Model the fold of this input.
Amino acid sequence: MTAKHPALIDKFGREINYARISITDRCDFRCVYCMSENMTFEPRSELLSLEEILQIGSSLSELGVRKLRITGGEPLVRKNVMWLFERLGKLPNIRDLTITTNGSQLSKMARALAESGVTRINVSLDSLQADRFKAITRIGDLGKVLDGIHAAVEAGFKRVKINAVIMKGRNDDEITDLVEFSRNSGVDVCFIEEMPLGNTSNHDRREAYCSSDEVRRNIEVQYPLIATTVNTGGPSRYYRMADSESRIGFISPHSHNFCESCNRVRITAKGLMLLCLGQEHSVDLRQVMRESNNDPLALAAAIQRGIEIKPKGHDFNLNEQPIIMRHMSVTGG
Ligand code: SAM
Ligand code: SF4
Done:
């Protein structure tokens, strides 16, 4: 590693150039696959301050990270979040500053996000039927989220992407509707296989499992899919349709394991750097920052130590109780 071209390389030779940072474990929804009905959130004093998040983002970027995704929980419910985006948007080495949001706050924030330097937005949308959307999110208002998606497109964001977790018996009959929505709204759509992270109430993951191949077959009844080599730096595999600009992506942790090309780490809202979505290997960056009085060298060394223990991959098994007890909202999806 040279100082001029730093890189974070793990012991399997994978270059880590992408970090997902969860800035809050709180959310204004309670999606059935993500949270249980009654969640206990971390006391606010346990969370990284916005300044600490910026310091981590800055350190990662100096070490070779080029893409940051800000997520949660719901990132746009964090107080003063624009302060953070305005600063992350100015980090010189970051080429892609993206967010994943449930869209509930987007209609009022999309323009400011575009101006702050956010480059891309993913919005979760699992159903286009208002009553179903409410049942899946336990709280959400579909109209507000659709307004938010349109506001993001109007604010000038390119390739806004819809994320949909497809579940048997809940929304697997809406796959084509979601594709139609993406075609008509000028956005991309990505279909995700549900992962066994944390316990969820009133939801059986094994029963709900719907493989990406099944989703794909369903789409191809109407729209034949053409494979592409598009790589947005994450785990999605992308396809296109002959007569539309919209892309169709698949994230398939069960059926098409993507660990071999993993280029990511995650930072939880408490500052734990997780080296794998499906394992517990971690380094406590908050502790390092607070004990070293925010010494940038100590933080950089801790990040490098973390990369050394990045495991080979996850061992998700839907037939067993989840071995990873932290919810996706804590993990930073
Ligand atoms: N609240 C924001 C949102 O919903 O977009 C950001 C955080 S959410 C945890 C990030 C993504 O993780 C969402 O697209 C959501 O659908 C996905 N997700 C949550 N729990 C999941 C699970 N158990 N398996 C697969 N995807 C999950
Ligand atoms: Fe909240 Fe996103 Fe989890 Fe839904 S998926 S409960 S919106 S964090």
